[in-house]
Design brief:
Blueprint lengths: L11 H6 L21 H13 L10 H8 E8 L9 H10 L8 E4 L5 E6 L10 E7 L5 E7 L2 E5 L1 H7 L4 E5 L4 E5 L4 E7 L4 E5 L5 H6 L2 H5 L1
């Protein structure tokens, strides 16, 4: 089945819902899903995007900013990072995990500058700091799945908008969150404060894992 695309300022996930990015952009893609059984889920995506705010964060001391939100474990300069994944790497990684319904996109070029959202090429060796795609679980939860540096994270955007909680919930694989600071072109590895973000750690983020995640787990 051909991957679908959703009209989306998808980096709202990165700059607002994750609360750890300085990226201040709105990236869009075209060709929204036409399948009738997806209408309800598409509506949820549209609502999630329209409701989200997108503050522009002025360039400042990024390290101080991240320390305000949690504990900084590591900082890596983009131009000194040999571990970034290529478009081909990410396509294989996410496809093997079952994320094939929607296209994988990036809104940063290889140097970390913001660009218009583009669909990645499954055979391209070009590397970007951030990649993202959508997933809609069997229970109807709309997720944004992101690959930042080498970390995979998933944000249940529809749940976060409807939960009424003061903090966002995000699913991670390690006990830390990876973010990319667009202003300084650096990756930050942090442990967020409980008052900043609710993290749920799983062994592997996959379509199967997101389908199995219950409301009770998200509500913890």
């Amino acid at each position: 089945m051909k991957s679908k695309r959703i009209v989306s300022p998808i980096l709202l996930f990165l700059s607002v819902c994750m609360l750890f990015l300085h990226t201040a952009c709105s990236c869009t893609s075209s060709n929204s899903p036409a399948s009738s059984e997806k209408e309800k889920e598409e509506s949820s995506v549209s609502s999630a995007e329209e409701t989200s705010s997108h503050p522009i964060i002025e360039k400042r001391d990024a390290e101080a900013y991240y320390n305000e939100k949690g504990t900084v474990l590591d900082i890596v300069e983009l131009n000194e990072n040999d571990n970034m994944l290529s478009e081909a790497d990410v396509f294989t990684l996410l496809s093997e995990r079952g994320f094939t319904d929607y296209t994988i996109t990036t809104s940063h070029d290889s140097t970390g500058n913001i660009i218009d959202s583009i669909e990645i090429n499954s055979s391209s060796p070009t590397k970007h700091p951030i990649y993202e795609t959508y997933y809609i679980s069997e229970s109807g939860v709309v997720w944004v799945v992101a690959v930042i540096n080498t970390s995979v994270m998933a944000n249940p955007i529809s749940y976060n908008l409807e939960s009424g909680k003061d903090t966002m919930t995000i699913v991670i694989e390690q006990n830390f969150v990876t973010s990319f600071d667009n202003a300084t072109k650096r990756f930050f590895t942090t442990v967020p404060l409980d008052t900043t973000m609710n993290t749920i750690q799983v062994k592997t983020i996959s379509a199967e894992a997101l389908n199995q995640m219950t409301m009770e787990e998200l509500n913890k």
